[in-house]
């Protein structure tokens, strides 16, 4: 099977500097806290936590950081109380943006997100204005360390929707429901290293931009949104 690769666009920053990586880990720790708060911290009985931990591992978050976040959340009755908020809008060249946040102050987050859009050539839209352009999918990317046909048959047998062989990687796309079964089947084949493994939102149709100045404006908006502490994920339909 084959299809259009979305991974390169999603993960354009492969070599994060320490400061950027620390910010990513802080955001992941917040997701762990929300998923594990008030529970026993066991991912086997908490699908939401298990999904977050998969994402943490794909970002190479240290095990100590993960455990500290779980320990902080387990049994917590007070403390932080985060609300999930989504903002939708358009950037330069009509690129659709969907911005998911976890916040303890909705007014602050709304102001910061609106300011980022305004300063970087975009504008906020209404609820539902762009979310219909995205689909919830599982995405698994690994290096080519196993035989292609064997891997393709294995993942398809366990519910994968698409399989893409690139020059040096394989991309596997799943539904959210089959994501874990596909990943576990790959692990049983001996695959231990994953470039990414997460359930995310992917654009149904991407917009290709070739003008360098416009691309720079789009990246500036992405960076401005990702710099906001309350922003957990930035999704868009931009493609180079």
Helices and strands, with pairings:
Layout lengths: L6 H4 L7 H19 L10 H12 L4 H11 L9 E8 L5 E8 L2 H14 L3 E2 L9 E10 L4 H10 L4 E4 L3 E6 L4 H10 L7 E8 L3 E2 L3 H15 L4 E6 L1 E2 L1
Parallel strand pairs: 8-10
Antiparallel strand pairs: 1-2, 1-3, 2-9, 4-6, 4-7, 5-6
Helix pairs in contact: 2-3, 2-4, 6-7
Overall structural class, as computed from helix and strand content, comes to alpha+beta
Q: How many β-strands, per DSSP?
A: 10
The biggest beta sheet is recorded as:
4 strands, antiparallel
> What is the first-to-last residue Cα distance?
23 Å
CATH class (first level) name of the largest domain: Alpha Beta
- What is the level-2 CATH architecture name of the largest domain? 2-Layer Sandwich
Mean pLDDT: 90
- What would CATH call the homologous superfamily of the largest domain? YebC, transcriptional regulation domain
What's the Cα radius of gyration? 18 Å
CATH-defined topology of the largest domain = Alpha-Beta Plaits
Number of domains: 2
Beta-strand portion reads 15-25%
User: Helical proportion?
Assistant: 25-40%
Provide the succession of SSEs.
HHHHEEHEEHEEHEEHEE
Keywords:
single chain; 240 residues; Alpha-Beta Plaits; four-stranded antiparallel β-sheet; 8 helices; 23% strand
What can you tell me about this protein's structure?
The protein is α+β, with helices and mostly antiparallel strands and 240 residues long. The protein folds into 2 domains: 168 residues, YebC, transcriptional regulation domain (Alpha-Beta Plaits); 70 residues, Alpha-Beta Plaits. It contains 8 helices and 10 strands. Strands 3-1-2-9 form a 4-stranded antiparallel beta sheet. A 4-stranded antiparallel beta sheet has the order 5-6-4-7. Strand 1 and strand 2 form a beta hairpin. It starts with 6 loop residues before the first helix and ends with a strand. The mean pLDDT is 90.
């Amino acid at each position: 099977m084959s299809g259009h690769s979305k991974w390169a666009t999603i993960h354009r920053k492969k070599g994060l500097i320490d400061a950027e990586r620390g910010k990513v880990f802080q955001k992941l720790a917040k997701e762990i806290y929300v998923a594990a708060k008030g529970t026993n911290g066991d991912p086997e009985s908490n699908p939401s936590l298990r999904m977050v931990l998969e994402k943490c591992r794909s970002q190479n978050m240290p095990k100590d950081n993960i455990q500290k976040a779980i320990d902080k959340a387990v049994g917590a009755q007070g403390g932080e109380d985060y609300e999930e908020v989504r903002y939708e809008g358009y950037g330069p060249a009509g690129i659709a943006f969907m911005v998911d946040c976890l916040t303890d102050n909705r007014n602050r987050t709304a102001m910061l997100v609106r300011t980022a859009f305004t300063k970087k050539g975009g504008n906020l839209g209404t609820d539902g204005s762009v979310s219909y352009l995205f689909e919830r999918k599982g995405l698994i990317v690994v290096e080519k360390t196993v035989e292609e046909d064997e891997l393709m048959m294995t993942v398809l047998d366990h519910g994968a929707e698409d399989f893409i062989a690139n020059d040096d990687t394989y991309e596997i796309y799943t539904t959210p429901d089959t994501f874990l079964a596909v990943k576990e089947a790959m692990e049983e084949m001996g695959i231990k290293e994953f470039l990414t493994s997460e359930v995310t939102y992917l654009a149904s149709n991407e917009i290709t931009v070739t003008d360098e100045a416009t691309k720079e404006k789009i990246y500036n908006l992405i960076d401005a949104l990702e710099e906001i502490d309350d922003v957990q994920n930035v999704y868009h339909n931009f493609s180079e």
